[in-house]
């Protein structure tokens, strides 16, 4: 009798487990069905082994049509190549997929922007079995974002003409072309002139941002000595370096060959990093620039012993319009767009940018790029 009771108890437990599993599966199915996101699983070969039915709402294909395909079969050729290169890097290290934006093609031919998140599936023996994750349709957000960027581009473009006339006429008045000015008049006019120059800088930065975001900028590499480009920028900065009594040290690697880079883009990178280092270092501080070869890369290292970036704000350094609190009090002129712009440039030319900073101790920015240089990119607009 005891054995019978024990067996019955076990059976009851099994039934309860089964019931729970069914409820939990049903719960998952209901959530998955009502969601506009679709959940998927791919095997180690990259083929879908499971997708929820909501894929039909997003891409027009039935789940049975998607199974056996790879994510790249749902993209056009160019996008498939771009995403597969990015995906390869993630898979090699078995990293989670985080907010990977990609463009798929709906069954009716329209473009669908997806944001993919996923986790690697690792077997009990540690073997790699594939990925499972969620795809979110972000087409609408993407279009709104694009419209906003296009608006900024149009508005800043339109603002350029009146700003240049203000510049032009202020310069003429200051030069005395319309008669001698007294000290007070000259003082006011200088305020107008410098205020206008700041506005020109801001408008140009906004145009650069929109060109980077719309992807309309071009990359035209030429074989150059990048140390020579750095020297031109240092020369431009010399008055500010002198005025603040800053000790400037430069170290160039004599082994560094000429590299194919876009002169304007490379100059912007030097300008931003070096002018920031000078701007955010108090008088009598130290700024250094090192350019050297490291294996198949070249490195640009800009260090200062200045104000630094507060630790709590360091994760926002490369975001649009970021200016740290310790700087906002001291310098009212910046736009907070410089680092965002050069990070986009560096990312676009197969490079990497990073930094280390300690409050009131100093900051070091590091740019790494392949010695093979920048790849050519067709575009309609120049940055600058
Ligand atoms: P801007 O200099 O016009 O404010 P950036 O995008 O070039 O814009 O820089 C963003 C912010 O990052 C700066 O406002 C400053 O707070 C911080 N920052 C950048 N470089 C340095 C540096 N070398 N030392 C300290 N803070 C820096």
List the helices and strands and how they pair.
Blueprint: H1 2-34, E1 38-43, E2 48-51, H2 55-59, H3 63-66, H4 77-92, E3 97-105, E4 111-122, E5 128-137, H5 139-174, H6 183-214, E6 222-224, H7 226-243, E7 247-252, E8 259-261, H8 263-279, E9 286-294, E10 297-304, H9 325-328, H10 338-348, E11 352-358, E12 362-370
Parallel strand pairs: 7-9
Antiparallel strand pairs: 1-2, 1-5, 3-4, 4-5, 6-8, 9-10, 10-12, 11-12
The structure holds adenosine-5'-diphosphate (ADP).
Report on the structure:
The protein has 384 residues and is of the alpha+beta class. 46% of the residues lie in helices and 22% in strands. It contains ten helices and twelve strands. The strands form three sheets. Strands 2-1-5-4-3 form a five-stranded antiparallel β-sheet, with helices on both faces. A five-stranded mixed β-sheet has the order 7-9-10-12-11, with helices on one face. A two-stranded antiparallel ribbon has the order 6-8. The protein starts with a helix and ends in a 14-residue tail after the last strand. 24% of the residues are buried. The mean pLDDT is 94. The site of adenosine-5'-diphosphate has 22 residues, from helix 8 and helix 10. Adenosine-5'-diphosphate binds next to helix 8 and helix 10.
């Amino acid at each position: 009798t005891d054995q019978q009771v024990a067996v019955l108890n076990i059976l009851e437990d099994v039934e309860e487990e089964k019931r729970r599993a069914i409820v939990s599966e049903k719960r998952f199915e209901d959530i998955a069905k009502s969601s506009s996101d679709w959940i998927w699983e791919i095997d180690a070969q990259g083929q879908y082994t499971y997708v929820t039915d909501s894929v039909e709402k997003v891409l027009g294909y039935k789940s049975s049509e998607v199974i056996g395909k790879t994510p790249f079969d749902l993209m056009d050729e160019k996008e498939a190549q771009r995403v597969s290169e990015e995906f390869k890097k993630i898979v090699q290290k078995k990293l989670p997929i985080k907010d990977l934006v990609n463009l798929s093609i709906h069954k009716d031919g329209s473009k669908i922007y997806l944001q993919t998140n996923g986790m690697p599936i690792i077997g009990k023996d540690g073997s790699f079995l594939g990925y499972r994750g969620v795809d979110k349709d972000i087409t609408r957000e993407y279009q709104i974002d694009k419209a906003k960027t296009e608006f900024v581009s149009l508005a800043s473009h339109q603002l350029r003409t009146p700003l240049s006339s203000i510049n032009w006429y202020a310069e003429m008045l200051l030069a005395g072309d319309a008669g001698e000015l007294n000290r007070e008049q000259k003082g006011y006019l200088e305020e107008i002139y410098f205020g206008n120059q700041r506005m020109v800088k801001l408008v140009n930065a906004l145009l650069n941002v929109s060109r980077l975001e719309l992807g309309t900028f071009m990359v035209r590499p030429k074989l150059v000595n990048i140390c020579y480009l750095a020297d031109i920028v240092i020369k431009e900065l010399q008055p500010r370096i002198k005025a603040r009594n800053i000790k400037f040290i430069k170290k160039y690697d004599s082994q560094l060959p000429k590299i194919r880079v876009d002169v304007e883009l490379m100059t912007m990178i030097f300008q931003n990093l070096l002018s920031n280092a000078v701007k955010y270092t108090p008088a009598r501080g130290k700024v250094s620039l090192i350019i050297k070869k490291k294996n198949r890369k070249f490195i640009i290292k800009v260090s200062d012993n200045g104000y630094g970036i507060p630790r709590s704000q360091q994760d926002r350094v490369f975001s649009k319009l970021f200016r740290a609190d310790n700087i906002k009090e001291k310098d009212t002129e910046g736009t907070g767009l410089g680092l965002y712009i050069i990070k986009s440039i560096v990312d676009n030319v197969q490079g990497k940018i990073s930094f280390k900073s300690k409050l009131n101790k100093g900051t070091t920015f590091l740019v790494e790029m392949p010695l093979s240089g920048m790849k050519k990119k067709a575009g309609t607009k120049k940055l600058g």
